[in-house]
Write a structure and sequence with these properties.
Layout: H1 21-24, H2 45-58, E1 60-61, H3 69-75, E2 80-83, H4 91-108, E3 112-118, H5 119-129, H6 138-145, H7 157-172, E4 179-184, H8 188-201, H9 207-218, H10 224-233, H11 240-253, H12 259-283, H13 286-307, E5 314-317, H14 320-323, H15 339-346, E6 352-366, E7 375-379, H16 387-391, E8 399-402, H17 411-414, E9 418-420, E10 436-438, H18 441-444, E11 447-454
Parallel strand pairs: 2-5, 2-6, 3-4, 3-5, 6-11
Antiparallel strand pairs: 1-8, 6-7, 8-11, 9-10
């Protein structure tokens, strides 16, 4: 029988100042949310006994990808596989997402991997895996494509290695290669610039009309703050109608599903979401700001599945705060949605499979403030009663759990203890409660992978 770690008998105070991913992954950093009361709850002995029994029954230790076969089998039956991470800067999360993605492709086929990165920046990765770029230059491609902070999010050794493996896979599976896409919209002015260049090259009579619509927003480039200032001075200065018309014109100018046509339409969606995000942040505040981005990433995902045709299958790599169902967390209490929630609401349940990740302690790459130099920072042990501490009571790690019907109603999950969410901004010595998302993991995910000690991502 596997040993379980003894329970903590006291609660330590954690002074914290860290902004979790659901607060800091945007350049407009929100203040961290207040914690759930369940965060610091001491687990009663009866509950602990039940947790021990449950972990013994559910936890499946693994050392290699072959031992993850039960997880791979279930995920391979779904059209959309959501692969999370408890932090943006952890080596093991990237490695296992890469292994799982390729294993699903080998078993059932996989048309694309969408990552929490900008569409235009990740295009270089897609060209590389499709054999359009020099195989020796993957490191330079990633470094040159990452044009905004945090560059290390995708310009790192682990992602480069994944791309090399995907390229090899694609060379052997030319009938169904894996494409790589960015589903985020943070650098939407870059999309505006690239779409404008495409329009200038077109001899279609409607190109001039599209250029005129885009110019409403282009006049404020390259700083989003300029558009925000224009809205504050006069709300009628907004470009909402012009950009919506630009989307329709882009569909007319760039129809079909060629890579160039799909890319042009995705640039238009990025522009529309970027405009909406600024407009909502000016008039409605942070929650609307978050929801515009979350909806955009889901819409891009749906468009990619459609573009790849019937029976398409895609995987999404994003933070737990994006891929775990927001309705199972305190994000719902704050009016926030995410990809995980939208996927379950808009698709049949048997077409989506979400896998969360958790760690107990180790090291992580992050910046202490926005735009700060990256550092390898120590990840402290989580507080007693948190999801991450509870999961660590089963000592044989790493392990995975596939949640079953009724697990969400168990007392140690139904009270929604906090699960750690480290973002690109992190200050472990001042880690505060906003770092923890009140979570029922059995309701938030379909499965969860726990790794007790994790290490830093390796930037290029």
């Amino acid at each position: 029988m596997m040993r379980l770690h003894p329970p903590f008998v006291s609660i330590f105070l954690i002074g914290l100042l860290m902004v979790g991913c659901d607060a800091c992954s945007s350049e407009a950093v929100d203040s961290a949310p207040e914690p759930s009361a369940a965060q610091d709850e001491v687990v009663a002995p009866g509950d602990l006994d039940s947790l021990e029994d449950w972990l013994q029954a559910r936890a499946q230790p693994f050392e290699n990808i072959e031992q993850l076969a039960p997880l791979i089998e279930q995920a391979s039956e779904r059209e959309l596989i959501l692969l999370g991470e408890a932090s943006h800067g952890t080596k093991e999360f990237y490695e296992w997402r890469g292994e799982l993605s390729l294993a699903i492709a080998e078993r059932a086929g996989l048309d694309f991997v969408g990552v929490e990165g900008d569409w235009h920046a990740i295009r270089a990765a897609d060209r590389y895996v499709m054999g359009e770029e020099d195989a020796r230059e993957v490191h330079d491609l990633l470094k040159n494509a990452a044009d905004r902070w945090p560059q290390w999010l995708w310009a790192n050794e682990e992602f480069a290695r994944f791309l090399k493996n995907v390229r090899k896979y694609n060379e052997a599976n030319t009938d169904r290669p894996i494409r790589i896409y960015g589903i985020d919209m943070q650098s939407f002015f870059s999309s505006l610039e690239r779409l404008a260049e495409r329009v200038d090259e077109s001899d279609n009579p409607k190109a001039a009309e599209l250029a005129g619509r885009l110019n409403c927003l282009a006049q404020h480039a390259p700083q989003p703050q300029r558009y925000a200032q224009a809205l504050r001075s006069n709300p009628n200065n907004n470009c909402e109608n012009e950009i919506q018309e630009a989307i329709q014109l882009t569909h007319e100018l760039f129809p079909g599903y060629s890579p160039d046509a799909v890319s042009a339409r995705k640039h238009a969606l990025n522009i529309a979401s970027g405009e909406a995000q600024i407009r909502h942040s000016v008039f409605q505040g942070g929650q609307a700001n978050w929801n515009v981005r979350a909806t955009h990433m889901f819409d891009i995902t749906e468009a990619l599945l459609e573009a790849h045709g019937p029976n398409a299958r895609g995987a999404i790599w994003a933070h737990n705060t994006h891929i775990g169902d927001a309705r199972a967390t305190d994000m719902r209490d704050r009016g926030r949605v995410n990809i995980g929630q939208l996927a379950r609401e808009n698709r049949d349940d048997d077409t989506v499979f979400s896998i969360g990740f958790s760690t107990h302690h180790g090291e992580v790459i992050a910046g202490r403030i926005w735009n700060a130099p990256l550092q390898s920072l120590k990840v402290p042990k989580p507080p007693p009663g948190s999801v991450d501490e509870k999961l660590n009571r089963f000592s044989d790690t790493p392990y995975f759990i596939v949640f079953e019907e009724g697990d969400k109603d168990r007392p140690f999950w139904s009270k929604r203890p906090g699960q750690r969410a480290m973002g690109v901004v992190y200050q472990p010595e001042h880690e505060r409660r906003g770092n923890y998302v009140a979570t029922n993991p059995a309701e938030r995910y379909d499965a969860l992978i726990f790794i007790e000690e994790t290490t830093s991502l390796r930037p290029l």
